[in-house]
Amino acid sequence: MAENPVKCLFLVLTSYLYFAFVVSESNSLMKKTYIVQMDKSAMPASFSTPLEWYSSKLKSVMSKTQSQVDGNDEDGIIYSYQNAFHGVAAQLNEKEVERLKEEDGVDAVLPETEYQLHTTRSPMFLGLEPEESASIWSQKLADHDVIVGVLDTGIWPESGSFNDTGMTPVPSHWKGACETGRGFQKHHCNRKIVGARVFYRGYEAATGKINEKTEYKSPRDQDGHGTHTAATVAGSPVRGANLLGYAYGTARGMAPGARIAAYKVCWTGGCFSSDILSAVDRAVADGVNILSISLGGGASSYSHDSLAIATFGAMEMGVFVSCSAGNGGPDPVSLTNVSPWITTVGASTMDRDFPASVKLGSGRTIAGVSLYKGRRFLQANKQYPLVYMGSNSSSPDPSSLCLEGTLDPHIVSGKIVICDRGISPRVQKGQVVKDAGGVGMILTNTAANGEELVADCHLLPAVAVGEMEGKAIKHYALSNRRATATLEFRGTRLGVRPSPVVAAFSSRGPNFLTLEILKPDVIAPGVNILAAWTGELGPSSVPTDHRRVGFNILSGTSMSCPHVSGIAALLKARHPDWSPAAIKSALMTTAYVHDNIHNPLVDASTAAASTPYDHGAGHINPLKALDPGLVYDISAQDYFEFLCTQKLTAMQLKAFSKSSNLSCHHKLSSPGDLNYPAISVVFPEDTAISTLTLHRTATNVGPPNSSYHVVVSPFKGVTVDVEPKSLKFSRRNQKLSYKISFTRRSPQTMPEFGGLIWKDGVHKVRSPIAITWLAPL
Fold first, then answer.
1. Within 13 A of 612's CA, how many CA atoms are on the CB side?
2. Residue pair 386/412 in contact by the 8 Å Cβ criterion
3. Domains and their CATH numbers in the chain
4. Catalytic residue check, 721
5. Which one of 39, 107, 145, 152 is the catalytic residue?
6. 218 catalytically annotated
7. What is the pTM (predicted TM-score) of this model?
8. 697 pLDDT band (50/70/90 cuts)?
9. Quick one: which of 445, 655, 684, 764 is 20 to 30 A from 435 by CA?
10. Catalytic residue of the set 188, 225, 458, 615
11. What single-letter DSSP state applies at residue 229?
């Protein structure tokens, strides 16, 4: 006899609800890593150390777990922080987190965040190579040893880039250490690599124990990224450096006299915020002057961004922080690391290229790029069958993307295969073609990449081409059953024009957290950069690549960031009294916005002129930054006043004030009043507000008696008035203020861009201007 259907439904629903409750309860009890920020000044006198107090707080909220019943009085702490940040990283469940948030002395509880890596010619391109400039930089460098902390995947100490020949003893103020482990011993540190540490507790808490048989649980770098960035910052000169014959020359870092401290925070499965935070905290205590951080996570508010909070603390201690902008371009609003106390670096090309070409059976030759150098070479005078597995020339599909298992060997064997960019790594596509029997690959850009060409060290003959030419090649292959082609490789070409060009992948503004802070700050070389490499991995980073090289060519804002970090080290050596904000100002106000053919900088993704949302203040110009004339200085209190305009609660603000007694004096009428080297004006929806006035204060770092006059770009939508129109300085380090008023004239539907320049006949102190109109309600 059939059961009552209503009764059956009731039983099913009851079971489902019970199961959902059990799962929900289980999730709420699951332990995860949280970063707990504490108000150190609130510690009761009964505790002898902050760590003792932190531990007591955690134990007071922890559930009676089995381990406690068994007598293990665990507090779940995996890190304690005491320099750039006060608090701990600990394993907690959701219920414990909620209880902890109610405790006195707890400023914030932030969930663990996963961060991603933003993955020779550049010194000369930046004007650092000629002997006359080398002598300028060398003055007094020995008197002011600069140490750059690099947070990355570790370091390969055997590289010639880390040779310490001729270097003076390690500075006495240095408190760092050389941690040991598999493949890394004390002797691997020297006068160049002055420190090496590892941070993995957060990573292991999230992913499980590191397999020490397959991964170095030590500062040794098996990924290559950290070695590359460290060498770019401060690598010693290495003659004859090259990648399989490409880019032959002398490789050197931006600041070859600076020291390197490697902080390994990234592992096979990623980089975690608790580890990064611990590394920043430790680096500040060790005594670094510069922090170079080529990684980023998802953008979040200032009070929920643990890296923003930690780097605020580093800035307070006088440490300059440079971070990569991210590789989310050309999409707008794709920036990471946008806090105003961080120097956010986008990527550009240099005047060096690695040309290659595709010769079609139709007789047409198409230009591309490649770093292929293998035993397989296609004959220039022979045409090979050409095949494209996609259905049309504009919409990629799994086969056209050459994803694993999508190519039929019966179709592609012996042929050159056209592969669309996207989904899988570029070099991996070549391996798929090779495994299926293909003899070569043409890698075609899609709309996301436009005409920007990035060279790769391919595993079979391969050439990358732009989107438009890619469409033409695909159309030829689809419309001609007997389509053929061959590939040629032309080595290294210098003097490319125009350059620099803003890289298509470089993340773009505007800064969605605070429109009034224009980001990125600057751009620097980040495309096809040659630097030292790990001995553990082939140049393509593909596991099947058994080639081993001493140097590799990489692209990404990960590569542009250490260029700025190195230049900052040079500026710190020449001007040891400059604050991090003064160094940033010098880099920004001397940056250039025209290429080597005197045209405005171009955006590789559109081939049109780029804007400050793409290039920030412009491309760095180290020699000019050495003597900027004026700087816009910003103190820790000034940055805190900026945070006071960001609608943060008193508790959220406390995360930044820590024990330094910073408080809101409400000196800034708006976020745009921060003494930032760039100017971003945001007209509100309320059309009754017709004029916006911003204030700036310039500090004279040039000759004592200096007189500057101002020049401002014309705008369609506003009139601009600067008062006073001249600044007359009578002594060095004198500060003079001015105000800029923007009055509505004809509101525009799109942002307008221009610049403000103070001139004294020698210096040109330029601030980019962005004007945005919010749509009326």
1. 29
2. no
3. 123-131+143-351+499-626 (3.40.50.200), 355-489 (3.50.30.30), 630-634+675-773 (2.60.40.2310)
4. no
5. 152
6. no
7. 0.90
8. very high
9. 445
10. 225
11. H
